[in-house]
Backbone:
Protein backbone atom coordinates (compact mmCIF):
# COMPACT_ATOMS: atom_id res chain seq x y z
CA UNK A 1 0.00 0.00 0.00
CA UNK A 2 1.15 3.53 -0.76
CA UNK A 3 1.85 6.07 1.93
CA UNK A 4 0.52 9.62 1.90
CA UNK A 5 1.83 12.38 4.17
CA UNK A 6 0.30 15.70 5.17
CA UNK A 7 2.95 18.02 6.59
CA UNK A 8 1.76 21.07 8.53
CA UNK A 9 4.18 23.92 9.23
CA UNK A 10 3.95 27.49 10.47
CA UNK A 11 5.55 30.32 8.46
CA UNK A 12 6.51 32.10 11.68
CA UNK A 13 7.43 29.52 14.32
CA UNK A 14 7.04 25.91 15.36
CA UNK A 15 3.54 24.64 15.87
CA UNK A 16 2.55 24.68 19.52
CA UNK A 17 -0.77 23.92 21.12
CA UNK A 18 -2.70 22.91 18.00
CA UNK A 19 -6.08 21.75 19.38
CA UNK A 20 -6.99 18.12 18.81
CA UNK A 21 -10.31 19.11 17.25
CA UNK A 22 -8.37 21.10 14.61
CA UNK A 23 -6.29 18.03 13.77
CA UNK A 24 -9.46 15.95 13.64
CA UNK A 25 -11.14 18.48 11.32
CA UNK A 26 -8.08 18.57 9.02
CA UNK A 27 -8.08 14.77 8.82
CA UNK A 28 -11.81 14.83 8.06
CA UNK A 29 -11.22 17.28 5.19
CA UNK A 30 -8.42 15.03 3.93
CA UNK A 31 -10.70 11.99 4.10
CA UNK A 32 -13.39 13.83 2.09
CA UNK A 33 -10.76 14.79 -0.46
CA UNK A 34 -9.48 11.23 -0.87
CA UNK A 35 -12.99 9.78 -1.20
CA UNK A 36 -13.96 12.35 -3.85
CA UNK A 37 -12.13 10.35 -6.52
CA UNK A 38 -14.02 11.04 -9.74
CA UNK A 39 -16.01 8.12 -11.09
CA UNK A 40 -15.65 5.92 -8.00
CA UNK A 41 -18.02 5.13 -5.19
CA UNK A 42 -17.16 6.19 -1.66
CA UNK A 43 -14.98 3.45 -0.16
CA UNK A 44 -16.22 1.43 2.78
CA UNK A 45 -14.58 1.74 6.20
CA UNK A 46 -12.09 -1.03 5.38
CA UNK A 47 -11.01 0.74 2.18
CA UNK A 48 -10.52 4.27 3.48
CA UNK A 49 -7.13 5.85 4.06
CA UNK A 50 -5.93 5.29 7.64
CA UNK A 51 -3.77 7.43 9.91
CA UNK A 52 -0.79 5.21 10.73
CA UNK A 53 1.83 7.55 12.20
CA UNK A 54 2.60 11.06 13.46
CA UNK A 55 6.25 11.91 12.85
CA UNK A 56 8.72 14.53 13.98
CA UNK A 57 8.79 17.79 12.13
CA UNK A 58 6.36 20.61 12.60
CA UNK A 59 3.55 18.05 12.30
CA UNK A 60 3.59 15.16 9.83
CA UNK A 61 0.42 13.09 9.59
CA UNK A 62 1.07 9.79 7.81
CA UNK A 63 -1.79 7.95 6.12
CA UNK A 64 -1.92 4.60 4.37
CA UNK A 65 -3.85 4.62 1.10
CA UNK A 66 -6.07 1.64 0.22
CA UNK A 67 -4.50 -0.89 -2.14
CA UNK A 68 -4.95 0.21 -5.74
CA UNK A 69 -6.11 3.72 -4.82
CA UNK A 70 -6.09 5.78 -8.05
CA UNK A 71 -4.04 8.97 -7.88
CA UNK A 72 -5.72 10.60 -10.89
CA UNK A 73 -7.75 13.06 -8.82
CA UNK A 74 -4.74 14.23 -6.79
CA UNK A 75 -2.82 14.81 -10.03
CA UNK A 76 -5.77 16.75 -11.48
CA UNK A 77 -5.85 18.95 -8.37
CA UNK A 78 -2.08 19.49 -8.55
CA UNK A 79 -2.32 20.55 -12.20
CA UNK A 80 -5.39 22.76 -11.62
CA UNK A 81 -3.74 24.64 -8.74
CA UNK A 82 -0.55 25.13 -10.74
CA UNK A 83 -2.48 26.49 -13.74
CA UNK A 84 -5.05 28.48 -11.74
CA UNK A 85 -7.88 26.47 -13.29
CA UNK A 86 -11.12 25.19 -11.81
CA UNK A 87 -11.19 21.95 -9.85
CA UNK A 88 -13.94 20.14 -11.72
CA UNK A 89 -14.69 17.54 -9.04
CA UNK A 90 -17.17 19.39 -6.80
CA UNK A 91 -16.60 17.18 -3.74
CA UNK A 92 -12.84 17.60 -4.03
CA UNK A 93 -13.26 21.37 -4.36
CA UNK A 94 -15.39 21.58 -1.21
CA UNK A 95 -12.95 19.43 0.80
CA UNK A 96 -9.91 21.37 -0.40
CA UNK A 97 -11.60 24.74 0.21
CA UNK A 98 -12.48 23.60 3.74
CA UNK A 99 -8.89 22.56 4.37
CA UNK A 100 -7.57 25.94 3.19
CA UNK A 101 -10.04 27.75 5.47
CA UNK A 102 -8.69 25.79 8.44
CA UNK A 103 -5.10 26.59 7.43
CA UNK A 104 -6.04 30.27 7.19
CA UNK A 105 -7.63 30.28 10.65
CA UNK A 106 -4.41 28.89 12.19
CA UNK A 107 -1.92 30.51 9.78
CA UNK A 108 -0.50 27.15 8.71
CA UNK A 109 1.14 25.79 5.57
CA UNK A 110 0.43 22.28 4.31
CA UNK A 111 2.06 19.91 1.86
CA UNK A 112 0.33 16.76 0.68
CA UNK A 113 2.78 14.17 -0.69
CA UNK A 114 2.86 10.59 -1.91
CA UNK A 115 6.49 9.55 -1.25
CA UNK A 116 6.31 6.75 -3.83
CA UNK A 117 5.43 9.39 -6.46
CA UNK A 118 8.11 12.12 -6.02
CA UNK A 119 6.46 14.41 -8.57
CA UNK A 120 3.10 14.38 -6.76
CA UNK A 121 3.01 17.22 -4.22
CA UNK A 122 0.12 19.55 -3.44
CA UNK A 123 1.20 22.64 -1.49
CA UNK A 124 -1.40 24.76 0.29
CA UNK A 125 -1.14 28.07 2.13
CA UNK A 126 -3.60 30.41 3.86
CA UNK A 127 -3.74 32.55 0.70
CA UNK A 128 -4.10 29.66 -1.77
CA UNK A 129 -6.77 30.51 -4.35
CA UNK A 130 -8.96 27.60 -5.37
CA UNK A 131 -11.09 28.15 -8.45
CA UNK A 132 -14.59 26.74 -8.04
CA UNK A 133 -16.22 24.43 -10.60
CA UNK A 134 -17.90 26.41 -13.42
CA UNK A 135 -21.55 27.40 -12.98
CA UNK A 136 -24.42 28.84 -14.99
CA UNK A 137 -27.42 30.95 -13.95
CA UNK A 138 -30.81 29.82 -15.24
CA UNK A 139 -34.43 29.28 -14.25
CA UNK A 140 -34.98 26.00 -12.45
CA UNK A 141 -37.78 24.09 -10.73
CA UNK A 142 -37.21 21.83 -7.73
CA UNK A 143 -39.51 19.58 -5.73
CA UNK A 144 -39.06 18.38 -2.18
CA UNK A 145 -40.60 18.04 1.27
CA UNK A 146 -40.82 21.43 2.97
CA UNK A 147 -39.11 21.05 6.37
CA UNK A 148 -38.66 24.71 7.34
CA UNK A 149 -39.91 28.11 6.24
CA UNK A 150 -39.58 31.62 7.64
CA UNK A 151 -37.01 34.22 8.57
CA UNK A 152 -36.31 37.58 7.01
CA UNK A 153 -33.71 39.40 4.91
CA UNK A 154 -34.46 37.22 3.01
CA UNK A 155 -37.10 34.69 4.06
CA UNK A 156 -36.02 31.11 3.34
CA UNK A 157 -37.46 27.66 2.79
CA UNK A 158 -35.64 24.37 3.33
CA UNK A 159 -36.61 21.38 1.19
CA UNK A 160 -35.57 17.77 1.59
CA UNK A 161 -34.92 16.65 -1.97
CA UNK A 162 -35.68 13.19 -3.41
CA UNK A 163 -31.96 12.29 -3.13
CA UNK A 164 -32.13 12.80 0.65
CA UNK A 165 -30.14 16.05 0.68
CA UNK A 166 -31.51 19.35 1.96
CA UNK A 167 -31.47 22.62 0.05
CA UNK A 168 -32.23 26.03 1.56
CA UNK A 169 -33.79 28.43 -0.93
CA UNK A 170 -34.16 32.19 -0.63
CA UNK A 171 -37.72 33.41 -1.21
CA UNK A 172 -38.92 36.63 -2.79
CA UNK A 173 -41.06 38.63 -0.41
CA UNK A 174 -44.18 38.20 -2.56
CA UNK A 175 -45.14 35.74 -5.26
CA UNK A 176 -46.95 36.49 -8.52
CA UNK A 177 -50.28 36.89 -6.66
CA UNK A 178 -48.86 39.46 -4.25
CA UNK A 179 -48.97 37.10 -1.24
CA UNK A 180 -45.75 36.75 0.80
CA UNK A 181 -44.19 33.45 -0.29
CA UNK A 182 -43.26 32.42 3.24
CA UNK A 183 -46.89 32.86 4.32
CA UNK A 184 -48.16 30.97 1.26
CA UNK A 185 -45.86 28.06 2.12
CA UNK A 186 -46.60 28.01 5.86
CA UNK A 187 -49.58 25.65 5.56
CA UNK A 188 -47.59 23.22 3.39
CA UNK A 189 -45.01 22.34 6.03
CA UNK A 190 -43.92 18.67 5.79
CA UNK A 191 -45.64 18.35 2.43
CA UNK A 192 -44.09 18.06 -1.02
CA UNK A 193 -43.93 21.41 -2.80
CA UNK A 194 -42.41 22.78 -5.97
CA UNK A 195 -40.41 26.02 -6.17
CA UNK A 196 -39.29 27.85 -9.29
CA UNK A 197 -36.76 30.63 -9.61
CA UNK A 198 -33.28 31.71 -10.59
CA UNK A 199 -30.58 29.19 -9.67
CA UNK A 200 -26.81 28.97 -9.83
CA UNK A 201 -26.05 25.46 -11.10
CA UNK A 202 -22.70 23.65 -11.26
CA UNK A 203 -21.96 22.38 -14.74
CA UNK A 204 -19.95 19.39 -13.49
CA UNK A 205 -22.68 17.61 -11.50
CA UNK A 206 -25.75 19.84 -12.10
CA UNK A 207 -26.09 20.53 -8.37
CA UNK A 208 -27.81 23.76 -7.33
CA UNK A 209 -25.43 25.95 -5.32
CA UNK A 210 -27.88 28.80 -4.71
CA UNK A 211 -31.48 29.53 -5.60
CA UNK A 212 -33.91 32.43 -5.23
CA UNK A 213 -37.49 31.24 -5.73
CA UNK A 214 -40.27 33.54 -6.89
CA UNK A 215 -42.99 31.03 -7.75
CA UNK A 216 -44.71 28.09 -6.05
CA UNK A 217 -45.44 25.21 -8.42
CA UNK A 218 -48.39 22.85 -7.77
CA UNK A 219 -47.22 19.33 -7.02
CA UNK A 220 -49.03 16.56 -8.87
CA UNK A 221 -47.70 13.15 -7.79
CA UNK A 222 -47.29 10.70 -10.62
CA UNK A 223 -48.89 7.26 -10.65
CA UNK A 224 -47.00 4.62 -8.77
CA UNK A 225 -45.27 1.85 -10.69
CA UNK A 226 -48.12 -0.67 -10.35
CA UNK A 227 -50.69 1.79 -11.72
CA UNK A 228 -48.39 2.76 -14.57
CA UNK A 229 -47.81 -0.87 -15.57
CA UNK A 230 -51.54 -1.58 -15.39
CA UNK A 231 -52.19 1.36 -17.70
CA UNK A 232 -49.58 0.07 -20.17
CA UNK A 233 -51.19 -3.37 -20.15
CA UNK A 234 -54.55 -1.81 -20.99
CA UNK A 235 -53.01 0.09 -23.89
CA UNK A 236 -51.25 -3.06 -25.08
CA UNK A 237 -54.54 -4.94 -25.44
CA UNK A 238 -55.45 -2.79 -28.45
CA UNK A 239 -52.09 -3.24 -30.21
CA UNK A 240 -51.46 -6.03 -32.73
CA UNK A 241 -48.94 -8.71 -31.70
CA UNK A 242 -45.36 -8.39 -32.98
CA UNK A 243 -44.41 -11.56 -34.82
CA UNK A 244 -41.15 -10.44 -36.42
CA UNK A 245 -39.15 -8.44 -33.87
CA UNK A 246 -36.17 -7.83 -36.21
CA UNK A 247 -38.40 -6.26 -38.84
CA UNK A 248 -40.25 -4.29 -36.16
CA UNK A 249 -37.05 -2.67 -34.85
CA UNK A 250 -35.82 -2.05 -38.40
CA UNK A 251 -39.06 -0.21 -39.21
CA UNK A 252 -38.66 1.96 -36.10
CA UNK A 253 -35.15 3.06 -37.09
CA UNK A 254 -36.02 3.68 -40.76
Residues:
Amino acid sequence: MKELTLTLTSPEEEIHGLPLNDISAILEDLDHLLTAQAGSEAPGAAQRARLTDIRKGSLVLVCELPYGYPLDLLRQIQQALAAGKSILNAKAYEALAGLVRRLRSRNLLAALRVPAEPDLTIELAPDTKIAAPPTIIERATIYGVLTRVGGSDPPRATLQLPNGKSLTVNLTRKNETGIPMARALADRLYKTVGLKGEARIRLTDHAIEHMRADEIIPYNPTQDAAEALAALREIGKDLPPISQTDRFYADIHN
